[in-house]
Amino acid sequence: MPFTDVPTIEAVKLTKRYGSFEAVSDLNIKIEGAKCVGFLGPNGAGKTTTLKMFTDLIRPSSGEALINGINVHTNKKAALASAAALIETPEIYPSLTPREGLSMIAEIRGVPATEIKKRIEEAVAEVHMDEWIDKRVGRFSKGMKQRIVIASALLSDPQILFLDEPTTGLDPRGMSEVRDIVKSLKSKKRLIFMSSHILSEVSDVCDEVAMIDHGKLIVYNTISNVTAKFAGGNNVVEVGLSRSIDGSILSKNILSLSGVVNAERVDDRNLKITYGGGLDAQERLLNDLVKLNIGVVSFKVASSELEEAYLKLITATL
Amino acid sequence: MTELNSEAKNVVPSSMAQVVTTMKYSLLDYLRGRRFFIMLIITALISILLTVLVGYYRPALFLADNLAFYNSWWGTSVTFVVVLSAIFFGGDAISGEFQNKTGYFGVPNPIRRSSIYIGKWLAAFVASAVMLGIFTAVTLGNGLYYFSSVPYQFGESFLFALFYMVAVLGFTFFFSSLFKSSSMSILVTAILFLFVFTLLNTLIVALVKIEPWFLINYGANIIGSVLMSPYPPHKTITAGVGFRGQPTTTTTFYASIPEGLAIMGIYFLVTAIIGLILFERKEFT
To answer: How many C-beta neighbours within 10 Å does residue B263 have?
Structure first.
């Protein structure tokens, strides 16, 4: 049964050797449920190698890559039926149009024939490539191709999505759109495993983070726990407001909230709040801020905290 | 985007259906590509050149009789069309998946690599067969113009040419799986078929004086031999005075039809299977 109620990916002693070099070493990780997990690490840490082992692009030297409990390398068709991937920057056959390239993937993945046309048009519209749907891919820029490949990953409405630096090659608008797509997938109860070098991107869209270095898993936890543990014991959140607030609210009401260590104004409509504790404290803080009726419109873990944790955990590259 | 219902998600097609899908879109890519157009021009050029030369010079060898015409026209040229088509469409069919990164688009899907390999092989076969079809049509057109009938042996020869195409494509897919560079796989296959096998055939027959039953182009000789009447046996000619007064002996070997089919069949099976195993094991690094 490729589709389950709780999407799961699991690496069991997953190892990839190239001669004496171990690109991925005895990796054990189990990710369950609808969430976005950022996969971080320096160049050559083994991120892409891991993702490739989950998608049959390379074979593990030992260990298993499981999708919903199914081994990718012994039962690829069943394992990947519920997953889609965007690894590196794939190319579509240059003489095909996006409509044809996506039709190929839709047919391979078994999207019902009656739905293919509609699904393709929706997926292409989602990546804002509607105007190009019947033009040949060979003439597209790298960013345009990347958008089409993202559309192909969305086509079959996969339960699990592997993304390898999905915003690479995209312009700022494209990057923002991809983040929005990932966020919308999260809300549709999808599991997204995404490698990235952009820490702000990870803290923006992901709930959890796995860090890998020299092929070994260093940490896997929620972003707030990782930043709390490795970035000075406190978490920092960036809070966006719909309106400017009085300085007294900051000093009296916000600073007096339970767990809050520090609060400062970034600009008229953005605050930076340092607080102690994990996810429970984060949830409580958000509730308290909303109750203050100060116009909270966004609330996210500060990427600088994730960066601090990253730099402490990943001591040297290569 | 709307969501699919869960029943719809679970229906991944059979491997056979996925082979057909891969073939369909690979063929579409071939037919629209510059490469198809170039091969079309080459086939047209060979056809036009033969038509003009035979029409203008009226060579006796061509026009002696019906069978001689097909032997001279088709028997000497068709293997070239077959080899070129196979190199054009199969030379980088698999290596291109790595070098051009198209494999990153297709492979991470619920499809066996063997389905991709077979689908691409079939697409290359159909594209090559289109070229063979064009050359066959021109040959038949000229043949009917000069002799108003087609010998049954031409039908046999056509089928042998088609079988040779199968074997050559097996070989090109093997090299295409062996290399990750498209130009390398195309170059090696072209050098082998256009020069090395011919040279080996000549050297083995002339120097070692054994039947080169292990060479694919020797097996392919049945395409021309079947257009001779009677079907030629091995011939040994002793003529003149050679080195230190010894007579010179030259043997011309002709593969029988079962031998030729066996040679081509074995070449196809061995190379296509090894090529498939290589592709199954090859990594997108």
So the answer is: 24
Q: Is B7 on the interface with A (CB under 8 A)?
A: no
pLDDT class for A50, splitting at 50, 70, 90? very high
pLDDT at B10: 56
**What's the DSSP call for residue B200?**
H
**How near does any CA of chain A get to the CA of B86, in Å?**
19
| Chain A partners within 8 Å of B15 (Cβ) | 77
* Contact predicate A72/A89, CB 8 Å: no
pLDDT at B240: 63
Q: What is the pLDDT of residues A246-276, one digit of tens each?
A: 888 888 889 999 888 888 888 888 998 988 8
* pTM reported for the whole predicted model: 0.86
Interface contacts (A, B; CB < 8 Å): 147
B38 touches chain A (CB under 8 A): no
Q: Does residue A145 have a pLDDT over 50?
A: yes
pLDDT in tens, B124-159: 999 999 999 999 999 999 999 999 889 999 999 999
Whether A136 has its CB under 8 Å from any CB of chain B: the answer is yes
Burial of A74 from C-beta contacts in 10 A (0-12 / 13-18 / 19+): exposed
Spatial separation of the C-alpha atoms in residues A157 and A85, rounded to whole Å:
12
> Among B282, B155, B141, which residue's Cα sits nearest to residue B223?
B155
Contacts of B152 (CB under 8 A, 6+ apart): none
Top pLDDT among A181 and B270 is at B270
Summary mean pLDDT of chain A: 88
Residue with tokens 């049509």: B137
Specify which residues A301 forms β-bridges with: A237
> What ipTM score was computed for the predicted complex, to two decimals?
0.87
Interior/surface letters B58-69, b for 16+ CB within 10 angstroms, e for the rest: eeeebeeebbbb
What tens digit of pLDDT does each residue of A92-122 get?
999 999 999 999 999 999 999 999 999 999 9
Q: Which strands form A8-18's sheet, in the order they lie side by side? A: A21-32, A8-18, A62-67, A70-71
* Count, residues in chain B: 285
